[in-house]
Amino acid sequence: MGRPAIITREPRYFPPPKDWIGLLGRRALATVREAGRALMLLFEAVSCMQFMFVRRSRREIIHQMFIGGIKSLGVITVVATFTGMILALQTGIEMRRFGQEVYIGAAVMVSMLREMGPFMTGLILAASVGSAIAAQMGTMVVSEEIAALELMSINPVRFLVMPRLVAMVVMTPVLSFYSCIMGVVGGGVVGMTQLGVPWSAYIDNATRFAENKDLFVGMFKAFLFGILIVITACHQGFATSQGAVGVGNATRRTVILSFLAILIAGYFVTRLFYV
Amino acid sequence: MIRLEHVVKRLGDRVVLDGIDLEVRTGETLAIVGPSGTGKSVTLKHMVRLLTPDEGRVCVGEDIVSEATGRELERIRERFGVLFQGGALLEWLTVGENVALPLREKTKMGNDEIVRKATEKLRLVGLEQEWEKYPSEISGGMRKRVGLARAIVRDPEIILYDEPTSGLDPVSSRTIDKLIDNLRHELGVTSVVVTHDLHSALSIGTRIAMLYGGKILELATPELFVQSRVEEVMQFLDSQFITRRGDWEKNIQ
Fold first, then answer.
1. Is B106 touching A (CB cutoff 8 A)?
2. pLDDT band with cut points at 50, 70 and 90 for residue B253
3. In a designed cystine with A250, which of A144, A191, A236, B21 is the match (CB 3.0 to 4.6 A)?
4. What do you get for the CA distance between the two ends of chain B, in Å?
5. Can you give B25-45 as a three-state secondary structure string?
6. pLDDT number for residue B53
7. Which residue of B has its CA nearest to A51?
8. What CATH class does B1-79+158-163+187-253 carry?
9. Where are the domains of chain A?
10. What is the pTM of this model?
11. pLDDT of residue A6
12. CA–CA separation, B68 vs B76, rounded Å?
C-alpha cells in the first residue's frame, strides 16, 4: 500500500480577494482542490480494500451493511412502492385513452430498472446514510478522534472509510433491486385496483419488454451512487472545522453534493449505455 | 529528546509562535504554561506534526518530525502517546476496547495478551472495573484517565498531555496529576504537559516553560519559576494565588 493520507488538516488562511475575479478564481481553485482530495480519498479507500477480509474489518463492514441497508429498508419500501404506484397511475391514465393500459407493466418495469429504482435508492441513502456518515466524521474531527487515530498510526481511511465504502457498494445495488421489485408490485396493485389490468397481464408485459441490459445498467448506476455517497460524506466530514456549526454545514453540503452527483452521474450513465 | 529550533507559526495574520527554541530532555516532565491563546497547544501539535512550522524545525531525537511524511511520520508518531483535552475516545467502542485499540490495530498480539495488557493499563489509572462501559457512561475525569491508559498502552517513550486537568474538579485534577507524576517515576517516560493550571504544572513539572506572546518568557525548575522576576510570570503566579513555594508544594502530597 502507498503512503497513507494525512486526514487531519492544518488551518489555511488567505488574504481576502481584491475583486470579484479574484473571488471567482479562488472558488474555482478550491473546488478543483477539494475534488482532487475526494478522488485521492477514493483511491486510498480502494487500496485499503486488501484489508477487507481481516476479521475486524469484516465485522465493521457487516455492521455498516446493517446500518446502511437493513435500517433503510422501511423507508425504501414505502418510497419505491409509491413511486411504482404513481408511475402506473400516471402512465395508465394516459394509455387508457388509447386502450393500451395493459402495457403499464412494461412502463413501470423499465422505468424502475433503468432509472427510478437506483435514483430513488440513491437519494434516500444520500439523505439518511450519507448525512449520518458526514455528521459522524465531522464530530470525530471536532472532538480530535481523527487526530487521535492518526497519532496512534491507525489509518482513518482504512479504519473508517473502507468499511463504509464496501458496505455501500454492496448494499446500494441490493436495495436498488429491492426497490425495483417493490415499485413493480406497487404498480401492479394500482393496475389491478384502479385501471382494471389483470395481474398476469401486468407481469407478462413487465417481463416481456424489460431486458437484462436494463437490470445491469440500473445496478451499475446504484453501485456508482454508493461510491459517490460514501466518498462525498467522508470527504465533507473530514473537512469539518468550526465545531458544531461545521458539522451541520458538512452534513448539509453532503446531502446537496450527493444529490447533484447522483443526478449528473445518472444522466451520463444513461447516455453512455442508451444513446 | 525533543527540540524546537526557532519555530515560527502564523495562523492568519497572527504570529502564534515567534521563533521559539525549546528542548525537552529525556525523562523529564516539561510543563508549558501560559494564558489561553498563547500557543501552548500549537506548540504541542508541532511535536507530532499535527501542525507544521512556517519557519524553523522540530526534531525528536535524530528524526526531523517537521519534515517527515508517510511511513517515516508514522514511525516517529509511534514513539508518542498523546492525551487529548477531551480524551478523544471513540464513542462506539467500550472503555476496554478503546484502550485495546492501538494493540489490536498495530500489533500482532493475541486476544488474551491484548486484554491482559489493556486491563493492566486500566488498573494503572484505577478503572479496570469499567471495561464494559461506553465513554458516554463515564465522567469527564474518567474519560481523561481512559485516554491516558490508551496513550500508554503501547509503552511510548514520550507522552504529551493537552490540558489534562481542564474542566475537572480539584479532586479529579489532583488524581490526574498523581498519575502523570507516577508515570514519570515508574516508567521513566518523557512528558510534555500543556496547562494553564499552575498548581498542577508546579506539582508535576520538573521544569516549567512560560509561553507568552509567542515567546518563551521563562524556563526554570518549579523552585526557581516561583521566584521569577519576569513581570508577566509574576502576574500569572499572582492570578493563581501562588506567591511562594508552600502555595503549591502541598498539591501532590
1. yes
2. very low
3. A236
4. 29
5. CCCCEEEEECCCCCCHHHHHH
6. 92
7. B105
8. alpha beta
9. 20-274
10. 0.88
11. 60
12. 8
